[in-house]
Every structure is written in structure tokens, then in C-alpha cells.
Amino acid sequence: MSSAPAAASPKLRAKGRPADIIFQGISTFAGISILVMLGLVAIFLVVQSIPAFGPDFDVKGTSNFLEYVGPLAFGTVWASFLAMIMAVPVAIGIALFITHFAPRKLASTIGFVIDLLAAVPSVVFGLWGANVLAGFMKPAYAWLSDNLGFIPLFAGTASGTGRTILTASIVLAVMVLPIITALSREVFLQTPRLHEEASLALGATRWEMIKMAVLPFGASGIVSASILGLGRALGETMAIAMVLSPSLVVSFILTSGTNPSTIASNIALSFPEAHGNEVSALIATGLVLFIITILVNGLARWLLGRNPRTGGAK
Can you give the CATH number for the domain in which 185 is found? Predict the structure, then answer.
């Protein structure tokens, strides 16, 4: 005999405690407020930048907004790209040394120095770059221009002051290095110990163990750390403003005295004296920087999603 199906039992729910309800409400409000603030910032930038797209645009000798923002956007991306090329490999190397090679006391000391370096204000890095690093790099720029001038990156006459886009990129690299190193170090420390011991037990060398167990496990963390560092580099203001003079040029030359400026530094240097349409133009360049940052973060998430090792990373 077949019995009638039993009635579905009601879904059991845990009794809500006041503390849980309050905490859930606060967390929900915090999460929604982030989206609201981001939307308000976007609305402000769009509304205030509308006059910059009018036909009577005339800022610093440019006749339209694209002619004005193009060199600044190029300089922002170019300087950040150079900084990341220099910073990411060094940061990963330092993180691996701290977690897998250095003695405990030395690793602790280096970790403390890295964390301390992250707390140094950007204006200090700007002073160091303009007054120390620029003068130190002048002989190197002269040598590169004289001996490797056939390469487009080092063509032309070397800068007499040392304040070039390469100097600014080195400063940016030093600034983002602590962020990438600290986050990569924490990711590498989370590698399952059994995976490392299994690799070594099967005859792998230390480097092979790192290549097969540590780096694949920490790939998503490395990308996330790099994106955070890139965000710092894209939005950096004072360090670039103190090293480079504002100019609207597009140039890949690393040692020349004529260098592209960045959006953030141009806003910082030009906004106090701006008036009329120039204010709208500067706010519109801020909107472009806002869009670049969102695109970079979206690209990083897309790359993580395509990687089978990190596709499930959150």
C-alpha cells in the first residue's frame, strides 16, 4: 500500500537574538552605504563636469576636452604601469623571503620595516624623490641617453635635473611596495602546510615547492594585492606633483626633461587657481580617473574569473 506523502515540515529558523538582529542591520546598512556613496560621487562628477564638454572649451591652449585629458590619462597609466613593473616582482620576492627563507628574527625585523614603510606620508616620498633620487639618477640618465639612445625609451637629451617620468615611477614603486608585500606575505603564510611538506617529501627543491604549492595557492591574493597597489599608484598626487612639472605631452621617453603629467597631480597643482570652465575641466578629468580605476578593478576581477585556479576566489 502506498501512503500519501507526508506534509512538508515548515523550515526551521533559528530564533533571532537581539544582538544578531542589530549586527545584521548595521552590516546591511554599511554595505548599502558604500554603494550609495559611490553613486553619489559618480553623480557629482558627472553633473559638475558637464560644462567641460561644451563647444567653448579653452583650457591651457586646448580646444576640446579630449585634447586636454588625453595626455594626462596617458601619463597616469604610463607612470603606474612602470611602477607596477618594478614593484610587483620585488614585493613578491620580499614576501617569499620573509615567509620561506629568512630566519625568524630577520623575517620579523623585515616585516616590521615593511609595515613601517607603508605608514610614511606621500609628501615625504615626494621630497625624497625630488631632492635625493632625482640628483642620484642624473648620471644614469646621461649614460642611458648617450649609450642606449637608439632605443626609443632613452632617445633625446637626458634631463638635467633628473626629474623624469622614470624618477616619478620609482617613487611610486617604493610607495606601493609595502602594500603588495604585506598582503602577499599574509597570503603565502596561509598556504596549507601539508601541501608544502608533501612537495618536499616527494623530492621537490625549495623553489619547486614554492612554484607548485605556494604561488598557485596565493595567485588570487597576489593579483588582489597588485590591484590595491595599482589603485594607490593611479591616485597618487603629492609625490608626482613634487617630482614632475605639469605638462600636456604624450611621450614614452623615460629620461627626457619633457614628461607627461598625471590627472591627480594636475588637479592638485591647477585647482587652487582654476576658475570658470577650468574647474569643470579639472572635475571632468577626475571623472576620467574614476572610470579608469573602475575599469582596472573590473579587468582584475575578469582575469581572476578566467583563471581556473582562482575562479572561485572572492
Answer: 1.10.3720.10
